[in-house]
Specification:
alpha+beta, Uridine Diphospho-n-acetylenolpyruvylglucosamine Reductase, domain 3, binds flavin-adenine dinucleotide
């Protein structure tokens, strides 16, 4: 970017920072997926009006803009793939206000999701969306990716709790969508259009989120299986029994062994799968449901049902699940984290297909995740310096997407499309479906400055992991 433009940006961002040194910009060149792309400039400001002025300037000069939270995206979302300006929104974290009467929380985009959980719980309330990255990801990133987590099974995902937004459009206007009311059907639902748009339709500068009362009791069950497919069967059986757990998470044998090698957690190494279940609600109902879940799992071949009694024991069980991500990268350094999702009835079939893909390509494919809502997380563990292995990974990833779509599912349940899944969009949406999305993007962002190179495949684009 030429000197004149950098000076103009510095004049606009007068209360914030404009980072131009290569060493500063380097920290903004990657996320938790693949590829390194150096931005020309990084800006930080807490002032919405100042940011809107910058967007107007970028739109006039056709400079690409990349909104960025904490860069934990697993799909390439915040990567500055076409150069231009990265907007570091993690610094915009000054608003966090709980309104107990309206049952809402108003937040700036840079607030960490775990801070929202804490603020709600201090008032006996709950903000249900709970991505595993909640301690390190921002609510702005969660909104842009429509993030979910284990509690998505019972409580839904980020979009189900957003009732109002403040957004800077790609032409630099500040708009407010929705509001503080639970009901609102005035015109098109622009709030829901922005949520999950991955920073391609505007910059979220404020959000009004719905809160609910915190359930009074919760219990945990760990169920151990000798067969992964039986575990898939148990998940379907529980979900069709009339019981709706708050969480239902799956760990396959590879993830069990990885966790035991990393930090021994009393998990059975010889089991092919474990399901971790959390039930919440009225204490008497929770107790009754625990017994029913145990019986159902035993009826489909569970080897053992463990019910931790103390809060400490329960926390240890959930800690083991959280350890999967750091544990599996001890096997090999490169983790390709997919989140293809299938309808619940297809969970056993998806487990079977994943096993076939693992054998066909002879890869370390680890399956864990939010199995209760069909959002299995097949993770391939590889070494990106081994080109031959990475070619097998690319083929396996394509087959995982094909399997999910063929079974009536989707490319992504929560991690978003970004750069990683763009080449597969047409497979799920069809030519016309994808074209309708392109037309929405064109109407909002005629100069294609807002997070270009994301969601929509470029001509002939293929998945390349390097
Ligand atoms: C260990 C680990 C565990 C994870 N677990 C989960 C999980 O359980 N569930 C889940 O859904 N995801 C999970 N993720 C993925 C990731 O944490 C989420 O996508 C998260 O929402 C990203 O937040 P972020 O602040 O890091 O955003 P970034 O990665 O910085 O950005 C993500 C996207 O949001 C856009 N964006 C960011 N802020 C704004 C804004 N204010 N306005 C407009 N666009 C914006 C960016 O342009 C980009 O497209 C996990 C990631 C890791 C590394």
């Amino acid at each position: 970017m030429d000197h004149q433009k950098i000076e103009a940006i510095k004049n606009i961002v007068s209360t914030g920072s404009v980072l131009t040194d290569e060493s500063d910009r380097y920290s903004y060149s990657f996320d938790a997926s693949f590829g390194t792309y150096l931005p020309d400039v990084v800006i930080q400001t807490k002032e919405v009006e100042e940011l809107a002025e910058l967007v107007k300037y970028a739109n006039k000069e056709k400079i690409p803009l990349y909104p960025r939270g904490q860069s934990t995206s697993l799909s390439g979302g915040p990567l500055p793939v076409k150069g231009g300006i990265v907007i570091d929104l993690s610094v915009m974290n000054n608003v966090l206000v709980v309104d107990e009467e309206d049952l809402v929380i108003v937040v700036s985009p840079g607030v960490l999701t775990s801070e929202i959980h804490k603020a709600a719980e201090q008032k006996g309330l709950m903000y249900p969306p709970d991505p595993s990255s909640s301690h390190v990801s921002t609510i702005g990133g969660n909104l842009a990716e429509n993030s979910g987590g284990p509690r998505g099974l019972k409580y839904g995902v980020t979009k189900d709790y957003v009732i109002g937004l403040e957004v800077i459009t790609p032409e630099g206007e500040i708009i407010r969508t929705g509001g503080r009311t639970v009901k609102n059907v005035t015109g098109y639902d622009l709030t829901k259009l922005i949520v999950g748009s991955e920073g391609t339709l505007g910059i979220i500068t404020k959000a009004i989120l719905r809160l609910i009362p915190k359930p009074p009791a919760s219990e945990t069950v760990m169920v151990i299986f000798n067969s992964l497919v039986d575990a898939g069967g148990a998940i379907s059986k529980i979900l069709s029994s009339g019981i709706l757990p708050a969480k239902m998470e799956l760990m396959d044998q590879a993830s069990i062994i990885a966790v035991e090698n990393y930090e021994p957690s009393n998990l059975p190494r010889d089991a092919e799968a474990i399901i971790l279940i959390e039930l919440d609600g009225h204490p008497a109902a929770v107790k009754d449901e625990i017994d029913k879940v145990a019986m159902l799992c035993e009826s489909v071949g569970a080897r053992e049902v463990r019910i931790p009694e103390t809060e400490k024991e329960k926390a240890e069980v959930w800690k083991a699940r959280k350890l999967v991500s750091p544990a599996i990268v001890q096997i090999k350094p490169t983790k390709i984290s997919e989140d293809a999702t299938v309808p619940r009835s297809q969970i056993p079939e998806m487990c079977r297909r994943l096993q076939q893909i693992k054998e066909k390509y002879n890869l370390h494919l680890v399956v864990f995740g939010h199995a209760g809502d069909g959002n299995l997380h097949p993770n391939i563990i590889a070494d990106k310096s081994d080109r031959e292995e990475m070619e097998r990974v690319e083929l396996a990833v394509a087959e995982i997407f094909e399997a999910a779509v063929e079974l009536g599912g989707t490319l992504s349940g929560e991690h978003g499309i970004g750069t990683m899944k763009a080449p597969f969009m047409e497979m799920e949406l069809g030519v016309v479906g994808l074209d309708m999305m392109k037309r929405i993007k064109q109407a909002w962002d005629p100069n294609n400055i807002m997070n270009p190179g994301k969601i929509f495949p470029e001509k002939g684009q293929k998945l390349v992991l390097k």
